[in-house]
Design goal:
45% of the residues are buried. The protein is built from 13 helices and 8 strands. It starts with a helix and ends with a helix. 53% of the residues lie in helices and 12% in strands.
Length: 317
Amino acid sequence: MSFLKKIFSKEKKENLDKGLEKSKASFLSKLTKAVAGKSKVDEDVLDNLEDVLIASDVGVDTTLKIIDRIEARVSKDKYVGIDELNSILKEEIAGLLAETNVEDVVAYTIPDMDTPYVIMVVGVNGVGKTTTIGKMAYQFKKAGKKVVLGAADTFRAAAIDQLQIWADRVDIPMIRQKMGSDPASVAFDTLKSAVANEADVVIIDTAGRLHNKVNLMNELTKIKRVMQKVLPDAPHEVLLILDGSTGQNAFEQAKQFTKATEVTALAVTKLDGTAKGGVVIGISDQFQIPVKYIGVGEGIEHLQVFNKNEFVDSFFD
């Protein structure tokens, strides 16, 4: 079986189902109570459904969009039974996600380029940034790519050491300097090394400080500018890592980082330990940034490429 076929395998779907188990159980429990004693979708059911979606961390604005879509269906079809509500929810939410995630990402493929593909990873400390980078590196290498890591979070010795552990585990090179070094200098050295060694993928870790947004913005801008001295179009991707278990706080982090830098893709981690999986739907919709990866377990294979249809199917099944 090829690597790409394995990505959409039965094992992947089972891991996704298991990872979203808490979110699904919580949502369906609330939904069952919301429609108790009802035979058709009416105004009361829609009001209750609105409460359920908000309580599931989908977010107010996205919830209102979903309710509007279902109201339109109910108005058009005249009669919609309660037994049809779940399938309509799946269809409408999948449609909403499709507006942002236009095409499902084919896992761990990169554009055909003559130079390394550079991914700059951003996110606050504690969201699973280092672990996500390590798992991405593993998957890229497994897909036959030559990968280099850059430890540009130089404000914490632990961040450098943790990334080194992943680099050693995956058996790929990592460029590092001592704690307190200029992050942009680390990024510069990493790209120079990647170009010299004809690497396919470069993943640059960055510091996750939000207490001073101006400093964060200046630092990320400087890293980009210095990388562009080596590769004028770098970074090719800015990946924001969000902790799904923080629910609405993940929205606030996304808001702050999208103000500080241009974010092109999202990864939502720690979905297996929470009932807040609805946050994936809301963040994707509200920020109009595609979700590229989701974390549904601690295993190295549990960082999955986001597939909107599989996600919605697992969440509402």
